[in-house]
Amino acid sequence: MTYIEWLKKQDRESPVADLALDIGRDPSFPQTDKFEVMLQYFKDSFVSVEIVRLFLWSYSMYLVEFRKKVVQLEEKLIREIEEDRESYD
Questions:
Q1: Is 30 helix (H, G, I), strand (E, B) or coil?
Q2: Against a cut of 0.90, is the pTM above it?
Q3: Integer-rounded Cα radius of gyration of the chain
Q4: For 41, left (φ over 0), alpha (ψ -120 to 50), or beta?
């Protein structure tokens, strides 16, 4: 899941949801998941510091959730491999 996809799934009554709506309405917002490109866009757009902070915070939350998902998938894969090995023994 990309940052933009994650952003759009957030609570509709929050500043993060407002950010998602603003990004969705902005045709010039970078259509990439590269942090540096998005951050540069915000810098070049002369948005308020609060918007940049909201972006930085939300991106860090996205990374935390992404990492949790990776760990879950890793644990599942290891369990499946171990179960397969046990069935061959």
A1: coil
A2: no
A3: 18
A4: alpha
